[in-house]
């Protein structure tokens, strides 16, 4: 019996990115009410979850006891994954940044002017109808000084004094915002896909 190959954290992050994209497509299918498409999307999510679980199990020194697999509350889950992203990106140049929904290229590799760990409230990409705009606190942003550096970013009209960045192809967003004082464009790593 051969030992399972060791999985790298990058492989796990790539699988997690695919899972996130599959979940976004699943939500869209639910909103459209397409039954056959919904079934296919659910199978994709199930497959990606199984792959991700197997990859995590193969990482050395990971304890997979049932107490470690209990659900995490929504309030702590985004913070944990976001902290991981911030630590990773503070030591690297940016990889190509793509829309998580349509995978359109938003920014080429190495084109970001820097990284800031500031915290900003951004509206959620999916809003519930009939409610006040729901927001989440996002920490850590790639800085792009010149708006013409982008490959494919859209800009909203000012909303409550703030302009937001979106994917120009599918309007997914906001993926970031325009700083009022510096006019720099800030992109949230948690709202985009990074593909090597």
TrEMBL record:
Membrane-traversing stretches: none
Alphabetized GO MF terms: guanyl-nucleotide exchange factor activity; zinc ion binding
GO terms, biological process: post-Golgi vesicle-mediated transport; protein transport; small GTPase-mediated signal transduction
Q: Which keywords describe this protein according to UniProt? A: Guanine-nucleotide releasing factor, Protein transport, Transport
Source domain of life is: Eukaryota
Give the organism's phylogenetic lineage: Eukaryota, Metazoa, Ecdysozoa, Nematoda, Chromadorea
| PANTHER family according to UniProt | GUANINE NUCLEOTIDE EXCHANGE FACTOR MSS4
Cellular component, GO annotation: cytosol; membrane
Protein name, per record:
Mss4-like protein
- Classification via Pfam families: Mss4
């Amino acid at each position: 019996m051969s030992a399972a190959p060791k999985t790298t954290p990058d492989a796990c992050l790539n699988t997690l990115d695919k899972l996130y994209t599959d979940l976004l497509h699943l939500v869209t299918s639910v909103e459209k009410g397409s039954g056959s498409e919904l079934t296919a999307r659910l199978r994709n999510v199930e497959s990606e979850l199984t792959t991700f679980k197997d990859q995590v199990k193969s990482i050395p020194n990971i304890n997979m006891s049932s107490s470690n697999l209990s659900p995490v509350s929504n309030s702590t889950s985004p913070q944990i994954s976001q902290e991981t992203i911030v630590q990773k990106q503070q030591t690297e140049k940016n990889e190509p940044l793509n829309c998580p929904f349509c995978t359109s290229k938003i920014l080429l590799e190495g084109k970001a002017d820097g990284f800031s760990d500031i915290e900003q409230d951004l509206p959620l990409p999916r809003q519930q109808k009939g409610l006040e705009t729901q927001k989440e606190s996002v920490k850590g942003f790639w800085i792009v000084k010149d708006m013409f550096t982008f490959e494919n970013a859209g800009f909203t009209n000012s909303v409550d004094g703030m302009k937001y960045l979106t994917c120009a192809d599918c309007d997914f967003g906001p993926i970031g915002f325009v700083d009022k004082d510096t006019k720099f464009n800030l992109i949230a790593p948690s709202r985009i896909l990074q593909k090597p």
